[in-house]
Amino acid sequence: MTDIILSISDALREAQLQRLEASLASKSSGKTPSKSDSLKDKSANYQRD
Question: How many separate domains does the chain show?
Answer without folding.
Answer: 1
